Amino acid sequence: MERDVRHDYEPKRLLERIGHEGPDLAAVSSSRSVVAGERALPGIVEDVLNFALTLEYLEAEFYTMGVGAPGLLAGTPREVFDLIRKHEVAHVALLQGVLGSRAVAKPTFDFTAGGVFADVFSNAKTFMALAQAFEDTGVRAYKGQAANLMGRKDILETALRVHSVEARHAAQIRRLRGQKGWITGSSRGDLPEAVQAIYDGEANTFQILTATLGGGLGGSPGDSEAFDETLTKGQVLRIVRPFIRSNA
Amino acid sequence: MDNEETRARERVDVALGGSRREFLKMAGIAAAAVAAPAVLAGCATFPFGHGSTLNFDQDWGVLNYAYVLETIEADFYNLVIKSPPPDLRPGELDVLKDIAVHESVHRRFFKRALGPFAIQQPATTFATIDLRSRSGVLNAAKTFEDLGVAAYNGAGKRLKLAEFLTIAGKIVSVEARHAAAIRDLLAPLPRDFVGDDIVDERGLDRALPPEQVLDMAAPFLKTQVTAINL
User: What are the 10-residue block averages of pLDDT along chain B, 230 residues in total?
Assistant: First the structure.
């Protein structure tokens, strides 16, 4: 069955998909199978990779613009963000390579989110705050999709290797900003309320295996910090939607 | 509790229940055969010996592997914060204390989650590490965190149950956060949090196979841990 996935990230369609399919996009598309270049990718895997590609497009362009913005970054932050930029650009190339002709096009981004972050490329504090928001989102987004890649172990392993690099980025940016490298409860720290959805649910300390075999772990801050939580595809798309102006 | 969570728990129960039946069956055979190693290799715990065998054909073998690695980390950090090196710099002990809590939570989580399938908690040793110096402690911490990340990244594809993979994912990103923080404390250069030794030019972290990870972990284990069915 053919479907032009590129349209999924156009804001109107995005909302339709979220509304109709919610977090359970996987089940809807799991029966499809498409051909990417020479290799057949299960439909569910293709969907996850295009979802990941959209997030990587966002990060790669964000850092490319930030590092290129005159006077925005200097010294250690500049070096750190340039390195992160290289990784995100590499992730885009990697995903495009796997997806071949099935890769979604890069959307047009608005990193001010309609003016909420108007000084994102002129004020290093705003830029670094958004960088933290994007990285913490990316970690949760990849984690939420891992199980949908179980049918392709090679791709799953690659995705896990990207996931932990995003987590390293997140920790470093948090520390550059004077925050702990890990997330305590569902606290967004000093970030604006506009990004709270990125941290909602992080306070969870009720892990299913433990629950099954008797009792939660407790409720101390460490119990929550010790586990990063997942976000569904729908939750992630709602978070990034303000930053997507249109599909290219 | 919603229906989705109920169904997820049922799947976990079924998966562990299947393992339990196999475990009991193998334990019965083992008792009858009086410790023939080839038969015992199917068991999580070596009932009559001083080592543990991890059967990577089973999800609980993979989870016990994580339990071993979390035990090394938890023991290490608890030792460090009990008697910190005198030359730690301001703020560094707080980072190590946080990590000690996280690793202890991870270990407790696996022990409880595995229940009767948990191997005997391995005994650890850190005799090769200079625990009295900042450099000795932070470099060892870097090794453990990077190894943990590579171990989870390499083991994820071996898990059969989606819920277990998701749980592993929830833990590995925290290990990666630790790794970056420790590397940042040590770093002579800003780029060291994702050094070339662990992140390649494609922007990918390491993924290591269990046998290699266990070889690297062996100096810190008094208990022999062997992987089978890789």
Answer: 55 57 47 38 46 94 97 98 98 97 94 90 97 98 98 98 96 98 91 93 97 97 94
- CA B138 from centre of chain: 19
At A186, phi and psi to the nearest 5?
A: -110, 30
Residues of A in contact with B9 (CB under 8 A): 208, 211-212
What whole-number distance in Å separates Cα of residue A192 and Cα of residue A120? 13
Residue A109 φ/ψ, nearest 5 degrees: -100, 155
Residues of chain B with C-beta less than 8 angstroms from the C-beta of A88: 203
Name which of B16, B105, B171 is nearest A223 (Cβ-Cβ).
B105
* pLDDT tens by residue, A120-161: 999 999 999 999 999 999 999 999 999 999 999 999 999 999
Q: What is the DSSP letter of A107?
A: P
Strand-pairing partners, residue B53, are: B226
Question: What ipTM was reported for this prediction?
Answer: 0.85
Look at A165 and B199 and tell me if their CB atoms are within 8 Å: yes
The pTM score is 0.85
The two counts, helices (H) then strands (E), for chain A are 9, 4
Residue whose C-alpha is closest to residue A121's, from A159, A68, A173, A83: A68
Q: Which tens digit of pLDDT belongs to each residue from A58-103?
A: 999 999 999 999 999 999 999 999 999 999 999 999 999 999 999 9
